[in-house]
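User: Here's a chain of 163 residues. Predict its fold as tokens.
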Amino acid sequence: MDLPTVLISGVVAGLVAGLVTLRTTERKIAIENITQQRNVWRDKVREKALEVSKAYKDSDTTKMKSLYGEFQLFLNPEDNDDKSILDTLWAMQSKDGNSDVAIELIEKLALLLKYDWERAKLETKPAWHFWGKPKRISYTNFKNKRNAKAANKSINRTNLRGT
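Assistant: Prediction complete.
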């Protein structure tokens, strides 16, 4: 090999190493900042969910309207599942404190938080782990599974009593 070929190879190797280092550093900074902000967001959603439960129990419609506005700012207005959460919050303003709608809201928020947690975990993994993105379970599917499970338990209890 001649000297120019060796020098050019060294320069190319240095450039590639520099670009890889730059990309790795940028990714690390982005992951740290995004995951920290998502953690703050999840904590705020949990905190506001507790406030909604208290306001609903106390039948404080003024507070419920205020919390509805806050959730509008937390959630994605383009996402149907997020709109469903807002619809549930809106419905809670006209109900008494003894309805199952409060449980429905908590379940919807739990599904949202679980989805966001899974998405955050996936994004912190190396790039070759991005085979797909996590799927958000719709509340309807969740409720159907829960109802089916409850029905199966009821059938099993009936069968045990009958034998």
